[in-house]
């Protein structure tokens, strides 16, 4: 049955964009090979087809070395695929140059990393406002959005702190604010709780769930099942391939009448 | 349940309903709770075995209630229980049995079995997360219980991953 899911067509003839499903991301035949230091090629992603609909909360899970992070980086344009195609908001993006991707990310994609990647010599406020200013917001708009997000994330009064003065959980919340400052349609998170204690993990999961309930599309990579189970759909990656794609919580995914997860579940009966 | 009831009685005398309430409060919603009938039946058996003794207390407008306290033998049983390390969970595992006997039956594919089991565990994990969020934050015992169940599930999921790794390697060798 897993094979069914694997072979389900990733895209229709219109070139990956299905009119029925409101897709944020669509990918087809993604392949990415890394080279080790000694020059040996390692196939990290070996032919992945993937569609993410608007409003979905998807976890990509699997053992270390399965290609989870590489896949996420491909979707965020941080790596370029060796082959395969990617559409973001209906736009073919795998052919984009790095500079063009950078512009695209500012508008459409927010990314949260395991180790926060905040700019250490900037204040919390500046870390959050910077991407808004780069995307063309006025300073006033950026300040207003920053204030709104920091309040929403329970970070009032931390505006003038530097990242080093904050706990890990707080830093990750700042990173979340930064990722959401431009109302990105896609939030990518690479092991967002990977360096947090269990309290920080719960906090980040609670916030991700909250933004998901408000309609945010989220794709997160994790090896932690507790984190994965917060999502509505879990994709299991193994050896660079999708081996399972499951809806959690008995929910069916919208806009799918055949193939994909719900079809597989129905067949399983 | 026998020994947990005995241990609760080591705190002081109590009647059946009080004991049931104490267990509920302590363990929260995640733990499968005995119904009141099971509590009374167990208390009856413990009394017959001489581990507790009951005393009827008259109540004005209601039937008598029976209050129990530990006997010396009961106290010894509780001490022995605390003294013994507890059995580690299962070496027997029904899922593993399915996985082991599936090849050659023509009725189940091992990878499908693993995927199905993973979905089941992930859904169980999701239920536990919800339970944990719904549970009173200040009930540390109940929270720890849920956390323990989640860690067990995480281990089960890690183990499924190991099974899958081994199977893939076998497939590559073939």
From TrEMBL, chain A:
Keywords assigned by UniProt, alphabetized: ATP-binding, Nucleotide-binding, Transport
Pfam families on file: ABC_tran
Gene3D superfamilies assigned: P-loop containing nucleotide triphosphate hydrolases
This protein's record includes keyword Ribosomal protein: no
ABC transporter domain segment(s): 25-264
Molecular-function annotations in GO: ATP binding
CDD domains linked: ABC_MJ0796_LolCDE_FtsE
UniProt xrefs under PANTHER family: ABC TRANSPORTER ABCH.1, IMPORT ATP-BINDING PROTEIN
Annotated protein name in UniProt: ABC transporter ATP-binding protein
Protein species of origin: Streptomyces spirodelae
Automatic annotation (TrEMBL), chain B:
Residues of the Transcription regulator PadR N-terminal domain: 5-79
Signal peptide span: none
Taxonomy, superkingdom: Bacteria
Ranges of residues in domain Transcription regulator PadR C-terminal: 91-168
The name this protein goes by in its record: PadR family transcriptional regulator
Source organism per UniProt: Streptomyces spirodelae
Lineage: Bacteria, Bacillati, Actinomycetota, Actinomycetes, Kitasatosporales
